[in-house]
Amino acid sequence: MSFLESVLEQYEIVADKIKLDNGIRERLRYPKRALIVSVPIEMDTGIVKVFKGYRVQHDIALGPSKGGIRYHPNVSLEEVTALAMLMSLKCALVQLPYGGAKGGICCNPKEMSQKEIERITRRYTTEIIWAIGPEEDIPAPDINTNMQTMAWMMDTYSMQKGHTILGVVTGKPLVLGGSLGREEGTGRGVFYMVEESTKVIGGKLRGLTVAIQGFGNVGSIAARLLFEKGCKVIAVSGSKGGIYNKGGINIKNLIQHINENKEIADFQNVNTITNEELLALDCDVLIPAAIEGQINKHNAKGIKAKIIVEGANGPTTPEADKILYGRDVLLIPDILANSGGVIISYFEWVQDLQFYFWKEREIMQRLREIMANIFNSVLSLSREKKVDMRTAAWMLGVSRISEAQKSRGLYP
Predict the structure, then answer these.
(1) I want to staple 397 with a disulfide (CB 3.0 to 4.6 A). Which of 60, 93, 231, 338 is the partner?
(2) Is 199 a known active-site residue?
(3) pLDDT at residue 319 tops 80
(4) pLDDT per position as a tens digit, 116-127
(5) Which domains are assigned to the chain?
């Protein structure tokens, strides 16, 4: 089953549960628009290469669409379409005035120079410029994109429009209208969800054993925050594999090690493990923060964690969901667990539109409050309807979009 098929299967389950109106049910199966563009650039060697780019806007019933831009060799229209739908549900769940979107370029930025990445970013922005804007569709960073990527996008868009437009993207540097706390937003949100989940099982953060698949922006920040609170992070991994130490890994030292351009596997006093082995470790909390489809029907029975907090988008398949729910594993779904990034993106967008910027403490307080409230709403619905947390979260998200579409009607 492909990623998109998995997302649509989950959608049909939820549509049945909430008895979704047939017309709205059909509309939400498809994105509002999907754009495929050619992105030709001159490489440093002088050779012209053409890359394929995408921008998919799933739904705009609640407001302008919102979603990240990823640069990765596996980017495809199908993947971006699935991610855009998840963004719609995520924004609706946490009650943001956004629809969902996603974009990306099929490329390998790890094999490109900084100048080549800048050229591909500016050309891609130019190709999709008619589809984005602060009141139309607001991109943000995702896999292999960052603050610098967003700065180039904002500058390219602004140059085309003839004046500076801060709100066209989020996740920018502070000097260009970025928000305090944005870089940590998703990882911090994952940390908050571990904190809330631990209360449900009657435990405490200190001494909690944690394994994290994926040590990028999300995984590393969640690991650091958990480590600082006394959790024992026993394993982390990257794309090439991971490391394990039953007694715990010093995350601050590991981050410094990686910042010195060293491989995770070269860290001292640890054993090397595969990503598959990490998922099966005996631990309290498992955080899949890499890519989609990592927990599936083949390995779900071997997972020993009591809590799973999804830092990545779509890391668990529908078949695995059923297995884990049957084993009483508390799984916090992606549209809730990793919503910290889009919530702070919303804060940044609001600040850009107002040209008035908030203090970091105020931002984090609002983030924690929103995520804790939504967590409790999802948990209550899960218990009331006797469904897993993902189904409950989707029920809330789909219901909100459905209500908006009913109120707006169908034009013409």
Answers:
(1) 93
(2) no
(3) yes
(4) 999 999 999 999
(5) 1-29+394-412 (no CATH), 31-176 (3.40.50.10860), 185-337 (3.40.50.720)
